[in-house]
């Protein structure tokens, strides 16, 4: 009988191959009360197992029967285990050939795989050798790809958290770093997209920084402004920053215009323009000095653009203010008002041009200067186009003021004879107005106005002739004959003067509209500029000793706080008790020696020097002889000496009564020296000398008529209250 059949008969189940080995070897023939699991333990002890088994109730009741039963069960268990082992052995023996075949197949496949790997390795080595340059390119592309991914990630992260800190400088540094990284990826496909994304971040930074930037510009904060200029420059956004500066300065100066009008509402546009132009000139120097420290050397061009834009956008506009003024007066005097305003504007334009030339050191852009000039003179363009109307009205008004023909013919002829000079004077004034107000472009209108003007004036002669004709008689009348000859002589005089006026008018028109230029005109202008530069340098050499002495005015012993020697002198001493101080006597002695040094060059025949001086300064062209050039040069030096002396004295903090008399003595000494040279002291210094000698009680009343700026400065220096 087979082992399997015997197990069935013994009610022993087949082993479960899924169980553990020791579990598969436990027969089911053993009942549940028999613990055979201990057989598989490493610490199995036979004695302990027997003792434990015999502790059961069944064993205690019938030990012999229990032992026999247990032995039988163990024998069955042994048989079952033997059968399981035999079955397992048979299974292993039957599967060994298949395992061997599988092993051989695996060995063959491993050898084939090894051969293929060797072939692949050789192929890779060949590819590496043949495509070394391509691999380098691929490595470079891969690096670019990595950089792009890094930049992309950086931009993405920046878009989310870079602006959270609110630190403009830190944010700007981060964006500048991104900008440099992005510049390396210019050939990448999505470069433009990344560039737009970075520009968006720059826009956000600009929006964040703009309030503080505007505040820095408005307050003229030098350090803060420099920081923002550096940031915007590195971000390649300097033009946007200049727009902020443009708007800040434009708004500030626009508010100054409105403030000027509000503080002087009782005045007219003439006063407003004069005051505002002075503020613009003062502001120009301040802005140029400040902006040159903040921006590049192009700061002058920037301020020129701002001034041009400002003058076009003032609120209320200058044209509206001029129109309001003209409506308050008759058309007959409107041209005079316009001429006055134009002269104020012309004076401002010339002063501004001088300031621009000084600031730009001759490096000017004509287009920007042209734009500024157009903005300055734009308010007058509509009136220049209607110049003929205004001129005609003024000439007719002047003509009416001369009176009308009388009933008596002799009185009429006498009035006409006397009126010729006035008529021609009015015509010449009209010519001057045309040149000044229209710069010569209004001559066609002037000719129309003069034609109308002279025709109306000739009507008076027609009236006189008709009066004469009514007095004609058939008998002789020598008196009437004499009146005819007199009237003829008067008309002949008028004809001659009109012909002479016509010649001068033709010359003016020709000079204005047909200026001849030589083919070497640029060279000639360059030489003229060279003469001008040399003249300025020569002047500085001549003026240097005076400049040095006048620098010590504020430290003069008479009022110096360190070495005040006037404290023991009484203010009641007469004027002759005071002698001029050393600094002014040094200036005076130097001025007195100038003529003898200049005469050897200017008195003798020297046509070349004459031509150079005339090219350098138009003032020399006013002298008809070479001996007059000495006087012109001395006049220039004297004018600058007076101005510097005034500027230095206005810088003195405080003067005692005795020191006031001392300063007045110094001023008078300079006046005496200039008088010896045939020159005169400046009006402001004359006013200062007078003001220094006034008693505090008389200061308020006696200072009327003096320059307001000098009056206020001397009052402060002397510590005199406004009420006197």
Q: Would you summarize the structure shown here?
A:
By secondary structure, the protein is mainly alpha-helical. The chain has 28 helices and no strands.
Cα gyration radius (Å): 57 Å
Question: Assembly type of the shown chains?
Answer: single chain
H and E string:
HHHHHHHHHHHHHHHHHHHHHHHHHHHH
Helix content: over 70%
Overview of the molecule:
With 724 residues, the protein is an all-alpha fold. The protein folds into 5 domains: 3-115, no CATH class; 140-228; 266-385, no CATH class; 390-513; 528-718, no CATH class. It has 28 helices and no strands. It has helices at 3-9, 21-24, 46-53, 57-61, 63-130, 132-162, 168-183, 191-218, 222-234, 238-263, 269-294, 299-312, 318-327, 331-360, 366-377, 381-385, 387-400, 409-438, 443-470, 478-513, 521-550, 582-602, 607-616, 628-649, 657-676, 683-693, 696-702, 708-718. The longest helix has 68 residues, at 63-130. The N and C termini lie far apart (154 Å). 21% of the residues are buried. Mean pLDDT is 79; it is low at 1-29 and 516-520. It comes from Melipona quadrifasciata. Pfam families: COG7. Its main location: Golgi. It is a peripheral membrane protein.
What's the helix and strand layout?
Blueprint: H1 3-9, H2 21-24, H3 46-53, H4 57-61, H5 63-130, H6 132-162, H7 168-183, H8 191-218, H9 222-234, H10 238-263, H11 269-294, H12 299-312, H13 318-327, H14 331-360, H15 366-377, H16 381-385, H17 387-400, H18 409-438, H19 443-470, H20 478-513, H21 521-550, H22 582-602, H23 607-616, H24 628-649, H25 657-676, H26 683-693, H27 696-702, H28 708-718
Helix pairs in contact: 6-7, 6-8, 7-8, 8-9, 8-10, 10-11, 10-12, 11-14, 12-15, 14-17, 17-18, 17-19, 18-19, 18-20, 21-22, 21-23, 21-24, 22-24, 22-25, 25-26, 26-28
GO cellular component, one term: Golgi transport complex
Coiled coil: 103-130
Organism: Melipona quadrifasciata
């Amino acid at each position: 009988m087979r082992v399997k059949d015997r197990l069935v008969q013994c009610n022993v189940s087949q082993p479960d191959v899924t169980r553990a080995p020791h579990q598969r070897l436990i027969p089911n023939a053993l009942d549940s009360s028999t613990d055979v699991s201990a057989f598989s333990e490493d610490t199995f002890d036979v004695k302990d197992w027997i003792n434990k088994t015999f502790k059961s109730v069944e064993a205690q009741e019938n030990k012999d029967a229990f032992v026999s039963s247990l032995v039988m069960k163990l024998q069955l268990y042994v048989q079952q285990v033997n059968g399981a082992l035999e079955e397992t052995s048979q299974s292993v023996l039957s599967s060994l050939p298949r395992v061997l075949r599988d092993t051989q197949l695996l060995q063959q496949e491993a050898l084939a795989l090894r051969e293929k790997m060797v072939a692949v390795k050789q192929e890779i080595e060949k590819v590496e050798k043949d495509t070394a340059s391509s691999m380098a390119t691929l490595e470079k592309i891969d690096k670019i790809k990595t950089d792009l991914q890094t930049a992309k990630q950086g931009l993405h992260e920046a878009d989310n958290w870079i602006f959270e800190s609110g630190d403009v400088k830190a944010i700007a540094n981060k964006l500048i770093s991104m900008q440099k990284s992005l510049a390396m990826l210019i050939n990448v496909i999505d470069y433009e997209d990344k560039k737009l994304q970075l520009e968006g971040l720059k826009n956000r930074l600009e929006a964040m920084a703009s309030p503080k930037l505007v505040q820095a510009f408005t307050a003229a904060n030098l350090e803060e402004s420099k920081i923002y200029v550096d940031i915007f420059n590195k971000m390649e956004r300097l033009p946007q920053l200049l727009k902020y500066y443009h708007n800040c300065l434009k708004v500030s100066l626009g508010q100054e215009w409105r403030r000027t009008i509000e503080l002087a509402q009782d005045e007219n546009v003439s006063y407003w323009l004069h005051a505002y132009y002075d503020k613009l000139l003062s502001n120009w120097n301040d802005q140029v000095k400040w902006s040159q420290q903040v921006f590049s050397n192009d700061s002058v061009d920037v301020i020129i653009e701002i001034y041009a834009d400002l003058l076009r956008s003032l609120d209320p506009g200058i044209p509206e203010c001029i129109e309001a003024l003209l409506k308050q007066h008759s058309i007959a005097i409107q041209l005079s008002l316009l001429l006055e305003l134009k002269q104020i504007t012309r004076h401002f334009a010339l002063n501004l041009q001088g300031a621009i030339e000084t600031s730009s050191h001759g490096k000017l852009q004509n287009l920007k200067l042209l734009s500024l000039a157009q903005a300055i003179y734009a308010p007058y363009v509509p009136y220049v186009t209607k110049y003929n109307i205004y001129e005609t009205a003024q000439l007719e008004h002047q003509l009416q003021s001369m009176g009308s023909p009388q009933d008596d013919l002799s009185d009429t002829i006498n009035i006409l004879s006397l009126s010729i000079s006035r008529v021609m004077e009015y015509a010449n004034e009209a010519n001057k107005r045309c040149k000044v107000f229209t710069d010569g472009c209004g001559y066609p209108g002037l000719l129309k106005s003069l034609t109308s003007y002279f025709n109306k004036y000739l009507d008076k002669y027609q009236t006189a002739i008709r009066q004469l004709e009514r007095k004609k008689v058939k008998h002789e009348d020598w008196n009437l004959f004499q009146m005819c000859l007199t009237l003829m002589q008067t008309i002949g005089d008028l004809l001659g003067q009109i012909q002479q006026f016509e010649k001068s008018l033709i010359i003016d028109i020709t000079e204005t509209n047909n200026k001849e230029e030589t083919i070497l005109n640029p060279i000639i202008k360059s030489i003229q500029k060279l003469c001008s530069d040399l003249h300025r340098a020569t002047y500085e050499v001549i003026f240097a000793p005076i400049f040095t002495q006048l620098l010590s005015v504020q430290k003069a012993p008479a009022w110096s706080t360190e070495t005040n020697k006037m404290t023991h002198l009484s203010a009641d001493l007469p004027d002759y008790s005071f002698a001029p101080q050393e600094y002014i006597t040094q200036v005076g002695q130097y001025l007195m020696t100038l003529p003898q040094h200049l005469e050897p060059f200017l008195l003798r025949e020297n046509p070349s020097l004459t031509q150079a001086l005339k090219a350098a300064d138009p003032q020399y062209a006013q002298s008809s002889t070479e001996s007059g050039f000495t006087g012109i040069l001395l006049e220039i030096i004297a004018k600058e000496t007076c101005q510097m002396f005034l500027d230095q004295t206005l810088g003195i903090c405080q003067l005692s009564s005795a020191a006031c008399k001392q300063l007045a003595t110094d001023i008078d000494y300079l006046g005496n020296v200039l008088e010896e040279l045939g020159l005169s002291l400046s009006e402001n210094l004359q006013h200062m000398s007078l003001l220094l000698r006034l008693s505090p009680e008389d200061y308020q009343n006696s200072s009327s008529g003096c320059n307001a700026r000098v009056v206020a400065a001397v009052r402060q220096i002397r510590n005199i209250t406004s009420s006197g």
